[in-house]
Design a protein that fits this description.
Layout: H1 5-15, H2 21-31, H3 34-39, H4 42-49, H5 51-58, H6 60-63, H7 66-76, E1 79-82, H8 90-93, E2 101-105, E3 115-120, H9 126-141, E4 145-148, H10 154-164, E5 169-172, H11 186-195, E6 196-200, H12 212-223, E7 226-230, H13 237-247, E8 251-254, H14 265-272, E9 276-277, H15 281-288, H16 320-328, E10 334-335, H17 336-343, H18 347-359, E11 363-366, E12 370-373
Parallel strand pairs: 3-4, 3-7, 4-5, 5-6, 7-8, 8-9
Antiparallel strand pairs: 1-2, 2-6, 10-12, 11-12
Helix pairs in contact: 4-5, 9-10, 10-11, 12-13, 16-18, 17-18
């Protein structure tokens, strides 16, 4: 489906070099609609924005190739959401300098109103990857949409965790929505398009640049109720995102790291500045007052076999070691790493006990090696 006339006019005016959110709003205050701006005389426009920009706006067809943008969007199944559209995320519209237009692949849903950003370094330690995956997975399992930037490292792990849980994720890009960056995330890019939303304010075909990422970061924090930082040096884009979140009046969370590790310095600095220290997903949900279960994430359907699957009965009793494992399970599901740590056993021992409990019908397994009591 092509753009409406009004959307074309929004896109045209937004793409004129030098027309940012401030100037755009000034022009709307004077002319009411982008179409009226584009149809106004140069002298009338000049009374609002000055001669140089007025000239570019009045000769917009020389500066903006909207037809090429529309063709590229139609080829890629990309939608345009303007600041005036009902679909525009309400929380994002509240920030200073909100994007005038958003290019999106995938559908924004009402449940995406409950979203949390997870950001961090492109070079995480194994601990950082594990924490990003864990919080991405556990937030998504509670029905919270995970927002990140599709960068290598922590971003990638957070998106993968959310998808693994069968949940929602939004990737905000520092390039055109038709440009895959980094290249090694091509597969993840397609998965997100199917399991969430790819989003950017940059026009089709725009290549990534260093200056784009701070701009991108304000959208990540602006969409979200809160931002969680997992491993980042003190001077990093993740800390820029966290500070933008604080400026936007959003909560900032940080996962503590190991001492004497460079990637721990950023989260620890944020905690000293007042960020909430996070040890479990409940710390985030309680602080943000997100319901324990925003959305029911369906568990995988049972595998049908020739023998009947075991059903829990009062006659089936767990062994003492199994009882200990059973007590550690959260009703909403616990990951195998958490279970093994809580029970002070190896992962293989924990898996063995959980398999037996599952055969007895006392435990059910979700995707991503998560277990919950029946």
């Amino acid at each position: 489906m092509g753009l409406t006339t009004e959307q074309r006019e929004w896109l045209t005016l937004a793409m004129v070099p030098g027309v940012g959110t401030g100037k755009f709003i000034q022009l709307l205050a004077r002319f009411r609609t982008p179409g009226s701006v584009l149809g106004a005389s140069r002298s009338a426009i000049e009374s609002v924005v000055g001669p140089a920009l007025a000239k570019r706006i009045s000769t917009y067809s020389e500066a903006v190739d909207v037809a090429a943008q529309v063709r590229a969007m139609e080829e890629r199944g990309v939608k345009l959401i303007t600041l005036d559209d009902d679909q525009y995320p309400t929380r994002l519209a509240e920030i200073y300098d909100p994007p005038l237009v958003l290019f999106t692949r995938g559908e924004l849903l009402e449940q995406d109103n409950h979203c949390v950003a997870i950001v961090g370094t492109r070079r995480p330690t194994p601990y950082g990857i594990r924490m990003a995956e864990r919080f991405g997975r556990e937030l998504a399992a509670r029905g919270v949409t995970v927002v990140s930037g599709l960068a290598a490292g922590v971003d990638t792990a957070a998106h993968r965790g959310a998808i693994e849980a069968g949940g929602r994720t939004i990737a905000v890009l520092g390039c055109g929505v038709d440009v895959v960056y980094p290249k090694q995330n091509a597969g993840l890019y397609q998965e997100i398009a199917q399991n969430g939303v790819l989003m950017t304010q940059f026009a089709m075909g725009t290549e990534p640049r260093g200056s784009h990422f701070p701009v991108r970061n304000r959208i990540i924090s602006g969409l979200s109720l809160g931002t969680l930082v997992v491993e980042a040096p003190v001077k990093s884009g993740a800390l820029i995102t966290a500070r933008q979140a604080a400026e936007q009046g959003r909560e900032v969370f940080a996962v503590p790291g190991q001492l004497d590790v460079r990637n721990s310095a950023g989260p620890h600095a944020l905690i000293r500045e007042g960020a909430k220290l996070v040890e479990s997903v409940e710390d985030i949900l309680v602080e943000l007052q997100i319901p324990a279960k925003v959305r029911q994430v369906p568990s995988p359907p049972p595998v049908e076999t020739q023998t009947a699957s075991p059903q829990p009965t009062t006659s089936v009793k767990p062994e003492p070691s199994e009882s200990n494992v059973l007590r550690m399970l959260s009703p909403n599901g616990s990951h195998i790493d958490e279970i093994a740590t809580a029970c002070r056993m190896s992962i293989s021992e924990a898996l063995s006990s959980l398999t037996l409990l599952e055969l007895k019908g006392l435990v059910r397994q979700f995707s991503g090696k998560r277990f919950a009591p029946r």
